[in-house]
Specification:
The chain has about 300 residues and is an all-alpha fold. The chain has helices at about 1-20, 55-60, 70-90, 105-125, 135-140, 140-150, 150-170, 175-200, 215-230, 240-260, 270-304, and strands at about 135, 200-205. It has a two-stranded antiparallel ribbon with strand order 1-2.
Length: about 300
């Protein structure tokens, strides 16, 4: 996988460098390339005599080009694949309860924690930019677009690894140390990767308009990822580890939802009576301001 990712960057750099190195005289140009107004559109020559042949294109006369990408379709398919990966984690918490396991038992609590983790990761993935308005990585630059795509490899691999470990941790009360590392390391790497995906986007929000800054939110994702990776060192049992991860991801969801609110914006939406009262006060303030303006204008005229 690492070789494939490195090859992607190498090919793009090669194509861009080739476009800069190919002289203009070797690039095919139409015979009549001067810009001039066309009086009659019907007189436009649509013949193919100036169109380079396939052999010329393959020979590099026109330079190198990267195929066009339907960004909306690509993002939809990428997000659908991540949802499928998270769905595997949801399926891994399904268990067949015996009569002794019916009720609020440890296995039930672990299943609930696993479901919370999958839901929170889905929430954080679809809100990875941590901004109201942003420029997507695919539209920002070729490097950020390629990085955004390649980061989904470790993201999907880490989530699949964590999902496989979740199944064992849900079914068993005691697991091996390797399963703990698979679970904590998988979730931590996935969280850290989602933070890097957020950094590839460019925020268009003015600085200081939200309650919590974008860099702070993404930094907290990195910090939580490091904590998850180090969780197996604490020797927690499966229920405690899954509960800790569910609490950390829930904290991020609440923190980022609160942090994206504009400063001065109320947390809860006012009811109808409060909205009417607020509108009435605004009307009174506007009327008072207009009266003061008229009085000041009258005094100015008398003074003149």
């Amino acid at each position: 996988m690492a070789q494939e990712i490195l090859m992607r960057y190498t090919i793009v750099v090669y194509k861009i460098s080739l476009d800069k190195l190919v002289p203009e005289r070797f690039k095919s140009k139409p015979a009549d390339s001067q810009d001039r107004p066309i009086e009659d559109p019907s007189s436009l020559d649509v013949s193919t005599k100036n169109v380079p042949s396939t052999e010329e294109n393959e020979g590099g006369i026109l330079g190198s080009y990267i195929p066009a990408l339907n960004i909306e379709h690509f993002l939809e398919r990428t997000a659908a694949f991540v949802v499928i990966v998270l769905g595997e984690m949801v399926l891994s918490v399904v268990y067949h309860a015996t009569p002794a396991q019916v009720g609020f038992k440890n296995i039930y609590g672990k299943a609930i924690c696993g479901l919370m983790i999958a839901f929170n990761f889905c929430w954080l993935y679809f809100d990875a930019e941590c901004s109201h308005r942003f420029l997507h990585a695919l539209r920002r630059h070729w490097f950020t677009g390629l990085t955004f795509t390649n980061l989904h490899y470790p993201l999907s691999a880490a989530l699949i690894l964590a999902g496989a470990a979740t199944s064992r941790m849900t079914q068993e009360d005691e697991v091996t140390e390797a399963i703990n590392w698979y679970f904590g390391g998988g979730l931590g790497v996935a969280m850290f990767t989602m933070a890097l995906i957020g950094f590839t986007h460019r925020s268009l929000d003015p600085t200081g308009t939200t309650r919590v800054g974008r860099n702070t939110q993404l930094g907290l994702r990195c910090a939580v990822g490091v904590v998850m990776i180090c969780l197996p060192l604490s020797k927690l049992n499966p229920l405690e580890m899954m509960g800790t991860c569910a609490g950390l991801t829930s904290f991020l969801v609440v923190e980022e939802t609160f942090g994206k609110l504009h400063r001065g914006e109320p947390i809860s939406k006012p009811n109808a009576s409060e909205q009417d009262l607020h509108a009435q006060r605004n009307d009174e303030i506007t009327e008072t301001t207009s009266k003061l303006g008229e009085t000041k204008e009258g005094l100015t005229r008398k003074a003149d």
